[in-house]
Amino acid sequence: MAIETFYAGAAAKPRGSFRPIFRRAWRVYRAWRIKRHTRYALLELTDEQLRDVGLTRSEARREAGKSYFWD
């Protein structure tokens, strides 16, 4: 009887939820979209606006060409 109770407790272990995995994937996706959007927004700035933020046209192009994994 005691052995059956021991194994029953081990077998009744709850499984993990996909919710935390989904939340993490959603956060990574949103971060990627925000980075992509802001990097491409640099390309739409004029040379004067780029000078205001301290960038050149070539630096803006290089930044827009980076992948998500570059920081």
Order of helices and strands: HHHH
Number of strands: 0
Structural class: mainly alpha
* Helical proportion, percent range: over 70%
Shape label = rod-shaped
Number of separate helices: 4
| Average pLDDT number | 82
Roughly what fraction of the amino acids lie in strands?
A: under 5%
Distance between the termini: 59 Å
Q: Main beta sheet: strand number and arrangement?
A: none
Low-confidence stretches: none
| Rg computed from alpha carbons, rounded to a whole number of angstroms | 25 Å
Task: Describe this protein's structure.
With 71 residues, this protein is mainly alpha-helical. The chain has four helices and no strands. The chain has helices at 2-11, 19-43, 47-53, 57-64. Helix 2 (19-43) packs antiparallel against helix 4.
Kindly list the characteristics that best describe this protein:
0% strand, 71 residues, mainly alpha
Quick gist of this model?
The chain is mainly α. It is built from four helices and no strands.
Draw up the topology in text.
Blueprint: H1 2-11, H2 19-43, H3 47-53, H4 57-64
Helix pairs in contact: 2-4
